């Protein structure tokens, strides 16, 4: 088989496929962050903790209540979205109009509390979550056998990301949301309940993190540390794509997953830092991010 820079083509394509799977998680998580920041100007540092919470809710639903994966994929995002709306109405709403640093500090504190509670209850060793029967086995891609579940992760992530982008960027509802964040008093003068829209938007962004957590549960160990291990990389993805850019977050998440896969082929130790090197270079050349708008 043909080699690429001395690397067998099979190994090269295999790492790209695995990188696309990781990029799918980056895309969904960074999408939720971008929605919240772009529409509410809030940096939600608790996003990783909500991702972990989504995975644990799926695990607890299956272990304690017998709720299967497919129901968890529907119910867990609703539960996390509801928790997010309560958080927005009870705490975050008091910080609007203040420096965004206050919101970051509050959500960072909430992340520490949530992670600490789950570490106390479940430890850090992790809990297994079985792959649903319909998605077991592997699919032959010609150059590798890829677990069918990982293909499902890529497909589900792309559908969710594309649907979210379409709603926000190409529908009247999305236009109304953007207008409400730019000039809430004017929009409210037309009879629109802006506080309700803001609450629902925050809940939707948090629900995306819960959805990603359910997707991740069968692919990795369900652990209290899974969110903190991932959230820094996801923030780097959002910064590279452009803070608040929906399309930028999705494309950058997928692209950086592929870059990580390539790094593992050519120089494996670089795979854990390549995202941050790219972030530094992008910030030097274009501080607003690849898809961000210069102010």
Structural key phrases:
single chain; 295 residues; mainly alpha; two-stranded antiparallel sheet; 11 helices; 71% helix; 3% strand; globular
The radius of gyration computed from the alpha-carbon positions, rounded to a whole number of angstroms, is 19 Å
Listing every helix as H and every strand as E from the N terminus to the C terminus, the arrangement reads EEHHHHEEHHHHHHH
Average pLDDT for all residues: 88
Give the termini separation: 50 Å
Low-confidence stretches: none
Shape verdict: globular
Q: How much of the polypeptide forms β-strand, as a percent range?
A: under 5%
Number of helices: 11
- Major pleated sheet: 2 strands, antiparallel
Structural class call reads mainly alpha
Task: Briefly characterize the structure.
This protein is mainly α and about 300 residues long.
Structural features, described:
By secondary structure, the chain is mainly alpha-helical. The protein has a domain at 225-295. 71% of the residues lie in helices and 3% in strands. It contains eleven helices and four strands. The strands form two sheets. It has a two-stranded antiparallel ribbon. Strand 3 (138-140) and strand 4 (145-147) form a beta hairpin. The longest helix has 32 residues, at 9-40. The protein is globular and about 65 Å long. The protein starts with a strand and ends in a 10-residue tail after the last helix. 45% of the residues are buried. The mean pLDDT is 88.
């Amino acid at each position: 088989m043909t080699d690429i820079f001395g690397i067998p083509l099979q190994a090269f394509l295999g790492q790209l496929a695995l990188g696309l799977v990781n990029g799918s998680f980056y895309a969904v998580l960074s999408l939720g962050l971008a929605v919240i920041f772009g529409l509410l100007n809030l940096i939600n540092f608790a996003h990783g903790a909500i991702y972990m919470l989504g995975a644990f809710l799926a695990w607890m639903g299956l272990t304690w209540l017998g709720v299967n994966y497919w129901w968890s994929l529907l119910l867990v995002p609703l539960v996390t979205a509801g928790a997010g709306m309560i958080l927005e109405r009870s705490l975050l709403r008091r910080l609007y109009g203040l420096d965004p640093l206050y919101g970051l500090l509050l959500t960072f504190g909430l992340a520490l509390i949530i992670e600490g509670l789950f570490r106390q209850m479940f430890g850090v060793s992790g809990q297994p979550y079985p792959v649903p029967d319909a998605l077991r086995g592997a699919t032959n891609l010609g150059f590798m056998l890829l677990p069918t579940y990982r293909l499902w992760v890529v497909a589900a992530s792309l559908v969710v990301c594309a649907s979210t982008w379409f709603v926000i960027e190409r529908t009247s509802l999305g236009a109304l949301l953007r207008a409400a964040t730019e000039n809430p008093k004017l929009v409210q003068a037309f009879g629109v309940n802006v506080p309700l829209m803001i609450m629902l938007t925050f809940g939707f962004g948090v629900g995306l993190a819960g959805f990603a957590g359910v997707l991740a549960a069968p692919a990795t160990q369900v652990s209290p540390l899974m969110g903190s291990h991932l959230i820094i990389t996801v923030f780097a993805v959002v910064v590279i794509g452009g803070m608040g850019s929906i399309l930028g977050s999705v494309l950058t998440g997928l692209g950086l997953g592929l870059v990580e896969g390539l790094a593992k082929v050519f120089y494996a130790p670089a795979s854990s830092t390549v995202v941050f090197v790219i972030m530094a270079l992008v910030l030097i050349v274009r501080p607003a991010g690849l898809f961000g708008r210069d102010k």
